[in-house]
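hey can u check if this looks right to u? its 355 residues, i copy pasted from the old doc so theres a chance i mangled smth
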Amino acid sequence: MKRAICLLLIMCMSVPFVCAEETNDSVLISFIGDCSIGDSAQYMDYESSYHTCLKNNGMEWPFSMVSAYLNNDDLTVANLEVVFTERRQHADKVYYLKALPENVEALSLGSIELVNTINNHSFDFFEEGYDDTLQVLTDAGIGHFGSYRTHAKDGYDHLAIKDIKGIRFGFVGFSYPQDSDQKRIAQRIEKLKNEEKCDVVIVSLHWGRETHMTPESWQYKYAKQVMDAGADVIWGHHPHVIQPIHFYQGKPIMYSTGNFTFGTMSHVDPSTGIFRLSFQRNEEGKVEVTQLEVVPCETQRSPDYRPFVLEDEAERKAVFKELRFKKDVYKFFDNLPESFLETGIVKLENGKIIE
């Protein structure tokens, strides 16, 4: 997969027919939740801080227990909830999340290739800090997306496009989406699909109530409107805990993917996961989601901070249970099938759940 890219390029240069066949291969994208790679600035020098952990253990540490999965997909996408900066002037708030610029190496070594940058901590060090973050990511070769100041021409409205195995993916990010943002989200979906010719558009929403284990009722209608506007996946974050998943016409709505590796956060449910979506082009040429697989994990608090894959069967099933609605809560959406409670997998065919 990722490590096979160079080999694939060689094959493409020497055996064009083989590459044409590769376009029909399944594409595997991993989504993970909130990653801070730092601390609230006032705690950076504490013995138990994220920065001290990296100093003592090295930049490979945060994702070292899940590398077997993140290294072996086609793309890993994370919510980056921190400011990469050395600035000191910060917003007047209780927690202002900061990471030294060199900490970006943890993302690179963790095989994180793309991040959402727009959330409630993006401007903890004002616009200058956000500019620093985008530059640090760009210099490290990590893609980013997120829309802020959607009517401005100052570079704060970033979409991302990734071409993988003949399938084009587009990414949109909004934070604390309001009803007035529906039109703006729809415009960006349309731009990606019609102008940029994306086969799949993934909409990232930083939304919901912190620490709540289920979405708020308004989110169901909001999600449907985003899907009806042309989104193929909704990937949510902000509550810092995982929440149940819906499907709408074969398209997944992941309301919250929880914390993955996070400093300055304690006393929340540590359940998390690697949310893996497989995409494939069908005989009619349309790209569809063919499988959702959740790799159940648990994240660790200070001073370790590493998420790890759960091996105990009862613990795995407990995470699967948290991700499945207990009853129908919105008539337009499908709940995960009961088999998910055993396998953590949902298979789809022609836009319908088959397992």
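Residues 3-23 have pLDDT under 50 and may be disordered.
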